[in-house]
């Protein structure tokens, strides 16, 4: 997932309920699918963030010495400014990018 190309809102947005439930016909089922996708996105973001932060990690045995790493701070600030996983999942849902199977 390319987070730089995401157009999801950073602030709270009110969505039209009928647009959310349109693909499934059931708002609760749609929200469940969106929530599962949001959890997947959150896992991907967390994994990517940890990998980037480990590139700048310095390991030492002394607990008294704490180093500020400006690169780590910049990476963290970038990820803090990103849209939240649920906003990204709703954007994908409304654009029809999420596939799902209905169980019967």
Automatic annotation (TrEMBL):
Which Pfam families does the record match to this protein?
Answer: RNA_pol_Rpb6
The molecular function terms in GO held by this entry are: DNA binding; DNA-directed RNA polymerase activity
Annotated GO biological process:
DNA-templated transcription
Any GO CC annotation of this UniProt entry: DNA-directed RNA polymerase complex
Q: Which UniProt keywords apply?
A: DNA-directed RNA polymerase, Transcription
Name this protein carries in UniProt: DNA-directed RNA polymerase subunit omega
Q: Which species does the entry assign this protein to?
A: Flavobacterium arcticum
Show the taxonomic lineage.
Answer: Bacteria, Pseudomonadati, Bacteroidota, Flavobacteriia, Flavobacteriales
């Amino acid at each position: 997932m390319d987070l730089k190309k995401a157009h999801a809102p950073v602030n709270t947005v009110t969505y039209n309920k009928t647009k959310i439930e349109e693909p499934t016909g059931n708002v609760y089922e749609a929200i469940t699918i969106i929530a599962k996708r949001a959890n997947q996105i959150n896992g991907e973001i967390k994994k990517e963030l940890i990998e980037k932060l480990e590139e700048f990690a310095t390991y030492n045995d002394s607990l008294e010495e704490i180093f500020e790493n400006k690169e780590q701070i910049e990476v963290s600030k970038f990820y803090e400014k990103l849209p939240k996983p649920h906003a990204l999942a709703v954007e994908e849902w409304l654009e029809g990018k999420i596939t799902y199977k209905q169980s019967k």
